[in-house]
Design a protein that fits this description.
This protein is of the alpha/beta class. It has one domain: NAD(P)-binding Rossmann-like Domain (Rossmann fold). It contains six helices and seven strands, in the order E-H-E-H-E-H-E-H-E-H-E-H-E. Helix 3 runs parallel beside helix 4 (about 115-140). It is globular and about 50 Å long. The two termini are about 25 Å apart. Bound molecules: NADP nicotinamide-adenine-dinucleotide phosphate. The site of NADP nicotinamide-adenine-dinucleotide phosphate (NAP) has 26 residues, from helix 1.
């Protein structure tokens, strides 16, 4: 059985939607008649103007919630707010991720390793996802099919790592994959109809990849629209036995 195909009036939650892949998921789901509610989180209103403007167009369907994934209290507050309106979620996609910002560049060599930066990578890229899993569990405890997907990255595959570098980002995505594999096992006992997966989006033209696009051939650099429709196809084709797996944008399984 595939997921959304069989669902009407699905409730969705997309985390990390101020820009990039997350914002595009929101736009796509707002246009999807099978989805009745879209909850979308952002961290900072001054950075989320396009998202917030969508509430004028979709006042009943879209609810925007302010949430920093590194603050457990903000995750709890968002889940409580969602729970006042709906008792079930059918599609959750966590799109939060950090590779670089004004104070942080991915490490090219051991000389650049520092504890503070490593901790930031893990806090945003790994720990946030498992905190979400902790607090979202009650909203997955229902009998309808559901998916909890987290955007990971192929560079988090240990088996695939031939190039090195990007210590913190790679390790935090590898940790994310392990945490979500664990979540899949525990959800398998508590809410067995929920499929928990991590997804590699392919190199996508967003703020995150922009400084590193120079050596990417144009056919391997996806627009956000292409990435989102490819990932939605992967999600729609998931089967119950796929929980706990790490999928690429084309539906192939990636090595751990
Ligand atoms: N683009 C690629 O080529 C590529 C490749 C492989 C994997 N990925 C993964 O795909 C996912 C989406 O990335 P993207 O390319 O769309 O990048 P992006 O445009 O930089 O978006 C990242 C999102 O994460 C949010 N975020 C960062 N820190 C946060 C925090 N502490 N709490 C809540 N939200 C936070 C950002 O919010 P702000 O706007 O407030 O910062 C933004 O909405 C990430 O997990 C990334 O690792 C991307």
């Amino acid at each position: 059985m595939t997921l959304i195909e069989n669902i009407k009036n699905a409730n969705s939650l997309i985390i990390g939607t101020s820009q990039g892949i997350g914002l595009c998921f929101v736009k796509k789901l707002l246009q999807d008649e099978r989805i009745s509610k879209v909850y979308a989180t952002y961290r900072n209103p001054s950075n989320a103007e396009e998202l917030l403007s969508l509430t004028d167009e979709y006042p009943d369907k879209l609810t925007c919630l302010m949430m920093d994934i590194t603050e457990e209290s903000e995750i709890i507050a968002s889940v409580q707010r969602i729970s006042t309106e709906v008792s079930k979620l059918h599609l959750v996609i966590n799109c939060v991720g950090l590779l670089h910002d004004e104070n942080l560049q991915p490490e090219k060599s051991l000389k650049q390793i520092n504890t503070e930066n490593l901790l930031r990578y893990f806090q945003i890229n790994s720990i946030g996802a498992v905190l979400l899993a902790k607090h979202l569990l009650p909203l997955f405890k229902h009998k309808e099919p559901s998916v909890f997907a987290t955007i990971s990255a192929k560079v988090g595959s240990i088996g695939d790592n031939q190039l090195g570098g990007w210590y913190g980002y790679r390790a935090s995505k590898a940790a994310l994959n392990m945490l979500m594999r664990n979540v899949a096992i525990e959800y398998g006992r508590s809410c067995p109809q929920t499929i928990v997966v991590t997804l590699h989006p392919g190199t996508t033209d967003t703020r995150l990849s922009r400084p590193f696009q120079r050596n990417v051939p144009p056919e391997k650099l996806f627009s956000v629209e292409r990435t989102v429709s490819q990932l939605l196809t992967v999600i729609e084709q998931l089967q119950a036995g796929d929980s706990g797996q790490f999928f690429s944008w084309d539906g192939s399984k990636l090595p751990w």
